[in-house]
Design goal:
2 domains; five-stranded antiparallel beta sheet; four-stranded antiparallel beta sheet; elongated
């Protein structure tokens, strides 16, 4: 304990609420465009229809994922793993090239915080008005403004939670059940949970999520090098700092270009001072670049005192975008993306699983034949029903009898078929032997799948 601290004094200071100053500029226009585009996709996508159904629907009870004209089944979930690996590699590549650009422009925390700040600006005014309102005593005006903000925040968060569940439950039916107060327990839980998470993270925690909760901020430095683009202050040009009149010559005053206006701090959503160097709290949103450029324009100085640059460039060296790290990431991502597309568009519309009967390994029937029994699981992934022809090979004289004898599978359905496989006792030696089941469908787009299994003959 600090012995110099006054007795009874708190050693912990309350974190001050950050009210970032509004700033205009090319990077902020890009950020807002990205935010509203991503929000538009999120809120509008579940309302789109495709062939009479919801265009994007993750139907967990039916174990089907509908993505426009494509239907994915549990057997296709390896594609999801593949997609996650590609997303991780894409994040590594973007980080090695441009730092935390994902955080500044596309991270859900950033996007929803932008929306909540916009709603707050509607009710409480610009950053100086918000700061003044926070310090003012409670009165009618403060109560009305704060109350209106909470109404907008809660409504927006609730709509966000409703939309989230709408990706997993048909959103039009979900809306009718909400209106009739007939929601199930799980739907109610996830709407409330996601609404509360959005309200808390984007409304109240904001920069604290980026600074204290996000793991990406902790390991990003492992992907940085001296050629990574980062938002940087140029101390060789800006130092020493100091205020001056607009028409003053900084060289005559012995000053750099930084006028020490602190606008770069005022516009920062995480409240850092970029002039102190690279910090893990920086989300590369470039608000400080736009703010500093506006001051440079007013002073008649060149832009770029704060800019996207690399450590090599700041020190007068050359930057290289194409280097071993980025080339390896790019190469792996290209190969994985190509394999992913090939696997996605060459998926078999028919799957076959073979399960041996565990009650009896084999049995002898008439005419000296041996019978093994199997259960065939057939899945028709297409949107139309199909007749399926079953066959088997692998042993001399092998025959196949199915129950039912004629197999027809409805669109997007699974069917179980009992298969009795018989061979002459002397068709092969004792023990297990490989046999191959085949399932084929006809039509305009024929398909065939094969699965191996073991046929057991007596050991004596």
């Amino acid at each position: 304990m600090d012995e110099t601290a006054p007795q009874g004094a708190s050693l912990y200071a309350k974190e001050e609420r950050i009210h970032a100053r509004e700033v205009q500029g090319s990077f902020q226009r890009l950020r807002k465009s990205a935010a509203w585009t991503l929000l538009g996709i999120y809120y509008l996508l579940p309302w789109l229809t495709w062939d009479g159904r919801q265009a994007v629907l993750f139907d967990l009870p039916a174990r089907k994922f509908y993505i426009f004209g494509m239907t994915l089944w549990p057997q296709d979930f390896y594609l999801l793993s593949w997609l996650l690996i590609m997303a991780a590699l894409a994040l590594f590549l973007s980080t090695s090239v441009a730092g935390r650009v994902w955080c500044g422009y596309a991270c859900p925390q950033t996007v929803w915080t932008e929306a909540f700040v916009w709603l707050q600006r509607i009710t409480e005014g610009n950053f100086s008005q918000r700061r003044k309102l926070d310090k003012a005593p409670w009165g009618v005006e403060k109560l009305v403004r704060k109350g209106a903000k909470q109404v907008l925040w809660v409504s927006f968060a609730a709509w966000t939670g409703f939309t989230f569940v709408g990706f997993f439950s048909p959103i039009q039916e979900l809306g009718m059940r909400v209106a009739a107060f007939e929601l199930g327990p799980w739907e109610t839980f996830w709407i409330c949970f996601y609404s509360l998470a959005t309200y808390g993270n984007a409304g109240h925690l904001r920069e604290q999520v980026c600074k204290y909760m996000c793991p990406y901020a902790r390991f990003q430095s492992a992907m940085f090098d001296r050629n990574t683009l980062i938002v940087s202050y140029d101390p060789r040009r800006g130092e020493p700092r100091g205020s001056r009149k607009r028409n003053a010559d900084p060289a005559r005053l012995g000053l750099g270009d930084c006028v020490d206006c602190n606008i770069c701090v005022q516009v920062c959503p995480t409240g850092i001072d970029i002039r102190e160097g690279l910090q893990y709290e920086c989300i590369t949103c470039a608000a400080c670049i736009d703010g500093c450029n506006s001051v440079m324009d007013k002073m008649g100085y060149p832009r770029g005192l704060i800019r996207y640059t690399t450590q090599n460039a700041l020190e007068g060296g050359e930057s290289r975008v194409f280097r071993p790290r980025t080339l390896i990431y790019s190469g792996l991502l290209t190969v994985l993306f190509g394999v992913f597309l090939f696997a996605l568009f060459n998926r078999s519309p028919l799957t076959l699983d073979v399960i041996r009967d565990r009650n009896a390994i084999y049995r002898e029937i008439s005419e000296g034949r041996i019978e093994n029994v199997y259960t065939l699981k057939l899945l028709n992934k297409s949107d139309v029903p199909h007749d399926i022809a079953l066959s088997i090979d692998g042993l001399p004289g092998v025959s196949l009898e199915t129950d039912p004898p004629d197999v027809r599978i409805a669109a997007g359905s699974m069917s179980s078929v009992i298969a009795r496989v018989r061979v002459p006792r002397d068709a092969a030696g004792p023990g297990g032997h490989d046999v191959v089941f085949r399932a084929a469908r006809g039509g305009d787009k024929p398909a065939e799948v094969a699965r191996e299994s073991r046929f057991m003959l007596p050991l004596d």
